[in-house]
Amino acid sequence: MFGQIDPPHRLLMGPGPVNVHPRVLRAMSADMLGQFDPEMTRYMNETMALYRRVFMTENRWTLLVDGTARAGIEAALVSLVEPGARLLVVQAGRFGLLLSEIGQRIGAEIRTL
């Protein structure tokens, strides 16, 4: 009735999606673990330790959040900008407008170029 999904190999050169190493594909096809499984906790702790090395920090709560560019921008602004802070935004496209919108919701004083 429906054919199997078998996309041709492509070299993806855009901002995403990107090509994935076969080792990663194998790991992604492994059995699932629940979030409270002791092995999952061990994997997460190892992953957080690797992130600390990559970002050259000792902060034990260093982690990455999977999401869109918007999610990353919003997480950064909410973490760094306090209500009432002045925020200078270059509006040269969609992401500049997005920065302004998020900054306004935070309660920042927005100035645009």
UniProtKB/TrEMBL annotation:
GO molecular function: alanine-glyoxylate transaminase activity; L-serine-pyruvate transaminase activity
InterPro entries: PyrdxlP-dep_Trfase, PyrdxlP-dep_Trfase_major, PyrdxlP-dep_Trfase_small
GO biological process terms held by the UniProt record: glycine biosynthetic process, by transamination of glyoxylate
Signal peptide interval: none
Cofactor list: pyridoxal 5'-phosphate
Keywords, comma-separated and alphabetical: Aminotransferase, Pyridoxal phosphate, Transferase
PANTHER family, A to Z: ALANINE--GLYOXYLATE AMINOTRANSFERASE (PTHR21152:SF40), AMINOTRANSFERASE CLASS V (PTHR21152)
Record's protein name: Alanine--glyoxylate aminotransferase family protein
